[in-house]
Amino acid sequence: MHNSTPLMTHFFRAHPWHGVSIGKNAPEILTCYIEIVPTDTVKYELDKESGFLKVDRPQKYSNYCPALYGLIPQTYCAKHVGDFCSFKTGIPGVMGDADPLDICVLVEKPILRSDILMEVIPIGGLRTLDRYESDDKIIAVLKGDLVYGHITDIRQTPPHLIERLKHYFLTYKDCPGESNTQHMEIKAIYGREEAHEVIRMAQRDYKENFSGIWNGHQEFSKSSMEK
How deeply is 146 buried, as exposed, middle or buried, from its count of CB atoms within 10 A (0-12, 13-18, 19+)? Predict the structure, then answer.
């Protein structure tokens, strides 16, 4: 994967998914983009076409995300992520959900705004299926955080934090009085090494599905240098 900074980001804001580097030390340490913070009463998500943060839907009920939530740049969940999920669960034919890889970040201090980048350390993840599509949630800690920064594996986290995250992802698409049509399932909680492997698979999927972005960047950079 091409990891240099696109030339156009020196003049314009980088696209949080395509224009921001995952980081040269990924998957051990990586950069992520935050879309939602726990105080948000509206669910925001990245508009994949424009790169702006948009309103997805209001948080109509009392359920809220108990951690910072966002995506890992230059990742994509498709064949390789799905195959890895199939291998781990024994469920044949799983595909990725065709989105960037999701991430939750544990921090001590309240962070009151989203649309930010931060350097984090993955410590594990939740193997989540959404309508039989792989929808992994990587769990990470903010690098250097005074409370969580020493954690290297999800097994070292307080169990109630993981239970809150599980409850959120199992119910955040539900509406009271309606049946759960989303079929959200959490098949496993996994540790750091497996989280690294999921990230690598998502990087492979990104490289295979979005190589044209970087090829175009290389051609643009070359033509600009020649002028």
Answer: exposed
